[in-house]
Structure formats: structure tokens, C-alpha cells
Design brief:
- The chain is an alpha+beta fold.
- Among the domains are: 79 residues; 86 residues, no CATH class.
- It has four helices and 13 strands.
- A five-stranded antiparallel beta sheet has the order 9-10-11-12-13. The protein has a three-stranded mixed beta sheet with strand order 1-6-5, with no helix packed on it. It has a three-stranded antiparallel beta sheet with strand order 2-3-4, with no helix packed on it.
- The longest helix is centred in the middle third of the chain and has 47 residues.
């Protein structure tokens, strides 16, 4: 040990071994002791190998507060033992050479072994690929669910607009109440309404989601004029002798 006083932080433990954190890259054993020191650099000796090297003082940080079982001295940056001296460590990522891939490289005795950096890069690409596939599947499922809901809504609207049961299309302007019941069966309920001396009758089929409308001078003479859905929109109309259909008439009749 030199007779000159040691600079901080080595003055706190002049005779005790210590370890660096992070450890010096390229040196297996991380236990050191100070052999000589100045205010600009420190000569340290490896306890396992006996090798000595100078470390610039600017890279040495503070020691740990807990000194048992070993003192830890922090480094201001990661160092590497290279060419007999300490230099700042720079992380290197090596890519697979493209030449071998482009020329259809083989796995034979003459083929160059793959580098670690290449394997890491390939692994990263695979991970990114899997993430991309997962995102694509998620988006696909989302689109299918949304589309299914919309199709369900549309189908629901079609059931309301057209109804699953379209037996009313068999009705004609010559059908009276007896003719309607014989073709469609008894209605769930019926109701009447008189407007301007004209009698209207509504035969409702709730399970089929439509209502058959009849019109005449009275209930006995009422004849079929069309069918409306639950929203009272025309589903079926008949042709009139003077031309056109009863669709406009159906739209003009107020719900009753």
C-alpha cells in the first residue's frame, strides 16, 4: 500500500477488498484491492488473478452503506477490459450476415456459425410477428362481433318490416272476415273503428307481428284492404279497380 493518503472513497477502507457494481466486462472475478492511488487514477489488483490495472478516478462512484459481507463500490458507467486497459463499455448488437442468406447459405462444415445478435434480432422479429398476429386476430374478432350485432339488428328489423310469416300475401280484395280467418286462422284479438260512415276492422296476429285491416259500410260487408306491421307500416296492399293500390289508404288510416 502506498504511503500517500488515499482519495475518497478508498480512504474509508484502505485495507479491505471490494467489488465493483456493475462488474467490469471481460473480467470474471470481481474482487479487488487498492495498490496505489492518486487524485486522477487508482491502481487496483484482482484478488483472484493478481492482475493490476489503472482505473480513472472519474469512473469511481460512492461505496455502498452496507459493507458486510463485502464492500460494493459503484461505477459511474459500465466499463470493459479491452487491450490491457479499461474503456467505456458499448453494447453491441450483431445482425446475421445477409450474404449467406442471399446466396442460400448451407449448414455444412464451411458455413459460418450464427451470431448471438442475429439470434436476438430473429427472436425480436418473431415476437413482433406474434404480437402483430394477436392484434390482427383481436381486430378480426371485434369486426366479426360488431358485424354480427349489426346483422342481428338488421335481421330484427326485417322481421318487423316483412315478418317471418307472410301468409297475408295470399289475401285478396275479395276476402271478407270469413276468408281471412280461413286462410290465417283466428286473430289474437280484433277491434273496430268508424270514420265518416265507413267501418274499419283490425284483426291482430301478435305472434306474427302484423294486423289485417278490413273496410266496408258495416262489419258484415267489410273486405280485406291490406296488412300493416307492429309499427303500422304497410306490408301488403291490393290493387284498386280505378288504378293504383290501397297502400296510400293504409298509410292514412290512424292506428286504432
Amino acid at each position: 500500500m502506498a504511503e500517500k493518503p488515499l482519495p475518497p472513497p478508498f480512504d474509508r477502507f484502505p485495507d479491505r477488498p471490494f467489488s465493483f457494481h456493475p462488474a467490469i466486462v471481460g473480467i470474471e472475478h470481481n474482487e479487488w484491492q487498492v495498490r496505489e492511488a492518486s487524485w486522477s487514477e487508482v491502481l487496483i489488483q484482482n484478488k483472484a488473478t493478481g492482475d493490476e490495472l489503472w482505473i480513472p478516478r472519474q469512473y469511481v462512484g460512492e461505496p455502498s452503506r452496507i459493507e458486510d459481507p463485502v464492500i460494493i463500490v459503484g461505477l459511474n458507467r459500465e466499463l470493459e477490459y479491452k487491450g490491457g486497459m479499461l474503456v467505456p463499455f458499448k453494447s453491441r448488437v450483431l445482425n446475421m450476415p445477409r450474404g449467406g442468406m442471399e446466396s442460400g447459405g448451407s449448414d455444412g462444415p464451411g458455413a459460418a456459425p450464427p451470431r448471438l445478435g442475429g439470434r436476438l434480432a430473429t427472436a425480436d422479429k418473431r415476437v413482433l410477428g406474434l404480437v402483430g398476429v394477436a392484434i390482427a386476430l383481436f381486430v378480426g374478432v371485434y369486426v366479426i362481433v360488431v358485424a354480427g350485432n349489426r346483422i342481428g339488428d338488421i335481421r330484427g328489423q326485417r322481421i318487423i318490416l316483412t315478418t317471418a310469416d307472410q301468409s297475408y300475401q295470399n289475401l285478396t280484395g275479395r276476402d271478407d272476415r270469413f276468408g281471412v280467418v280461413s286462410k290465417l286462422g283466428n286473430p289474437g284479438y280484433d277491434r273496430f273503428k268508424e270514420v265518416g260512415g265507413i267501418q274499419y276492422e283490425a284483426l291482430s296476429y301478435p305472434s306474427r307481428k302484423y294486423t289485417v285491416l278490413m273496410m266496408g259500410e258495416n262489419a258484415k260487408s267489410a273486405m280485406y284492404i291490406g296488412t300493416v306491421d307492429d309499427a303500422w307500416k304497410p306490408l301488403h296492399s291490393i290493387a284498386m279497380k280505378q288504378g293504383g293500390t290501397t297502400e296510400d289508404l293504409l298509410r292514412a288510416i290512424q292506428r286504432f
